Amino acid sequence: MGTLLRRLWSWMGSRNGVAEVRAALGRGATFRSKLSDAGAEEVGEMMDLMNAVDVRDLGLEPPASVSGISYVSIVETPEFHICLFLIGPSEHLPLHDHPDMTVLSRVIRGTLTVTSYDVVAEEGAKRFRAKRHPVDVISAPAETVALFPRLRNLHEFVAGVDGAVILDVIVPPYNDDTRLCTYYDVVDPSPGGGGDDDVILAPADPEPDFVCEPRSYAGMPP
Q: When you count CB atoms within 10 A of the terminal residue's CB, does the N or C end of the chain come out lower?
């Protein structure tokens, strides 16, 4: 009860950034569809809202120790998800895709090394020719970044020595029908004598010890 009272006290009179993010996503299908366009004003608006979310809004004060990789669901609907990923020190989230999805991400705590790819063409047998972007090292407090259906749609993470916490907005979310999450390996780092950033990606199983554990959300009501 003491913990709950402290949370209520810290939230009294404060802005509920989580609820503002949800309210924007709830405006309707037209608003959400525009989030697939990297240049749309709606993308900038969502980024601004996410940039205003405080660690206290998310129940992350005081900091808790993080080990392994955990997923915290904040809001789940068929149209969008708002969630957290908690990644322990030096943990690796394998290379994976986001089919026909937009993901807005903000590093709330810690440091994250991100490697992203664009799919350029199909190569048969479910393989893809892809272009690797320069590696990004993102440290909190960070501005929100994004991936889109045709831009940076595949990525992998490595957390820094103190781990990392990521706030994600996923539109539309994964499902068991048309938007399955697929993991990949780089099987040819320079196909046909291409540049260092030209690669071939093939579906692969993640490492046997890769686990993403669910955790309960302890932040402000969305």
A: N
What pLDDT shows up at residue 189?
Answer: 75
Q: What is the pLDDT of residues 160-195, one digit of tens each?
A: 999 999 999 999 999 988 899 999 999 887 666 566
Residue type, 66: V
Q: What is the 3-state secondary structure (H, E, C) of the chain?
A: CHHHHHHHHHHCCCCCHHHHHHHHHCCCHHHHHHHHCCCCHHHHHHHHHHHCCCCCCCCCCCCCCCCCEEEEEEEECCCCEEEEEEECCCCEEEEECCCCCEEEEEEEEEEEEEEEEEEEEEEECCEEEEEECCCEEEECCCCCEEEECCECCEEEEEEEEEEEEEEEEEECCCCCCCCCCCEEEEEECCHHHCCCCEEEEEECCCCCCCCEEEECCCCCCC
For the chain, give the longest Cα–Cα distance: 64
Q: If 0-12 CB within 10 Å is exposed, 13-18 middle and 19+ buried, where does residue 137 land?
A: exposed
The alpha-carbon radius of gyration of the chain (Å, integer) is: 18
Q: Whole-prediction pTM value? A: 0.90
Angle at 183 between CA 216 and CA 178, to 5 degrees: 80
Question: At 14, is the pLDDT very low, low, confident or very high (cuts 50, 70, 90)?
Answer: low
CB atoms within 10 A of CB 66: 21
Report the C-alpha gap between 48 and 4 in whole angstroms: 29
